[in-house]
Every structure is written in C-alpha cells, then in structure tokens.
C-alpha cells in the first residue's frame, strides 16, 4: 500500500516491530462503515460457492476467506494479463474482489456477533493472477486489493502478501484473491 493511497507509510512496520505505526487522525474519527460510505461502496452479500467449499472458516480469532474470483456485472471477469488484459484492468478487477472479500468478511463477523469494526488486522492476502509466462506485474495487479483494504481499514490493513502468476483460473477469471483476517 502506498503512502499516497492511505496517508501512511507502513513500509517499515512489521508484525514483530516494537514500534507501532503513527496514528492516522482520520482513522480515529471514521468507522469502517463511514469509510465505505465515503468511497461509495456497498458491500455485497456472500456469493454462493461454485464448488464443494464454504465461503469462510473461523478458527480461534482467525477468519479464512476462500478465494474470490473477479466479477464484472455479475459474471466472471475473464481475461489473461499480458495477453488481452492490461495491468490497470487487473488492478480494477483486484479492487472489485476486495469489495467482495469485505462482504464475505462482514458475514463472517456477523456469524460471531461482531462487525467489521472488530477486525483487528488483515493478516494475509494471497492473489492468483491469470497471466502469460512473460507477464511480471502480478504484484501491481494485487495492489488494487491491498490499496482498497488500506483505505477502508487504515493501519489494521498492513498485511503479509503473496502474488502469483498462474496459467488459468476457474471460469477464465483474470484474478482470484483469498484473505486471512484476525478478529478482536
């Protein structure tokens, strides 16, 4: 996540860092719901799984969200980065997935009697990018998700991340992302 997107430079802070990131004044004044409203984002309901899995699993304080594919107008956002889809379009797809992930995370929170305000940390994001063997900007595509999480959750969004290029994804989707979050 970049300083320009969140107003914070979190690059030097790690889970093991004895320092805490500087407090963002906006973060203390705005709730997650207020940030979503400010961004004109309405979270969708949880999508019905397309195969034999559940949308989320909770163990202890950790919430594991199953992979979400990119969707556009309710259909799989089909494309292959480096062939017929560019990095900016991939970032938009990853941002759309972040919205779907937050909708599922909200359902997971509600299943525990909690809300998105109870998310203490986005722990990890794993991104799969449908790409040609010569495409090398998977990390930039995934920023579409990471940066939106930063706008919504502030310092609680500082997460570990992996971004992989893959030969294909279910239904030809251009991007698939899964997420792990911690609840307070």
In short:
By secondary structure, the protein is an alpha+beta fold.
How would you state the average pLDDT, rounded? 89
Top-tier CATH class: Alpha Beta
Order of helices and strands: HHHEEEEHEHEE
Total E-strand runs: 7
Short descriptors:
disordered N terminus, alpha+beta, about 180 residues, about 25% strand, two-stranded antiparallel ribbon, 60s Ribosomal Protein L30, Chain: A, single chain, 7 strands, about 30% helix, 5-stranded mixed sheet
Characterise this structure.
By secondary structure, this protein is α+β, with helices and mostly antiparallel strands. The protein has a single domain (23-183), classed as 60s Ribosomal Protein L30, Chain: A (2-Layer Sandwich). 31% of the residues lie in helices and 24% in strands. Strands 1-2-7-5-6 form a five-stranded mixed beta sheet, with helices on one face. Strands 3-4 form a two-stranded antiparallel sheet. β3 and β4 form a beta hairpin. Mean pLDDT is 89; it is low at 1-22.
Question: How are the SSEs ordered, and which strands pair?
Answer:
Blueprint: H1 3-6, H2 25-29, H3 32-38, E1 56-59, E2 62-69, E3 71-72, E4 75-76, H4 87-111, E5 119-130, H5 138-153, E6 160-166, E7 175-183
Parallel strand pairs: 5-6
Antiparallel strand pairs: 1-2, 2-7, 3-4, 5-7
């Amino acid at each position: 996540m970049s300083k320009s997107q969140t107003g914070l430079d979190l690059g030097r802070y790690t889970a093991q860092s004895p320092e805490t990131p500087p407090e963002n004044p906006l973060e203390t004044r705005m709730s997650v719901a207020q940030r979503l409203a400010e961004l004109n984002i309405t979270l969708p309901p949880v999508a019905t799984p397309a195969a034999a899995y559940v949308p989320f699993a909770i163990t202890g304080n950790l919430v594991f969200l199953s992979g979400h594919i990119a969707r556009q107008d309710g259909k799989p956002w089909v494309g292959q980065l480096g062939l017929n889809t560019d990095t900016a379009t991939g970032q938009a797809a990853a941002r759309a997935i972040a919205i779907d992930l937050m909708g599922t995370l909200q359902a997971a929170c509600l299943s525990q009697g909690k809300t998105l305000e109870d998310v203490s940390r986005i722990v990890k994001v794993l991104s799969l990018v449908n790409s040609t063997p010569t495409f090398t900007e998977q990390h930039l595509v995934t920023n579409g998700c990471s940066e939106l999480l930063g706008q919504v959750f502030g310092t609680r969004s500082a997460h570990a991340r992996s971004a992989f290029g893959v030969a294909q994804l279910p239904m030809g989707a251009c991007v698939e992302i899964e997420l792990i979050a911690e609840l307070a």
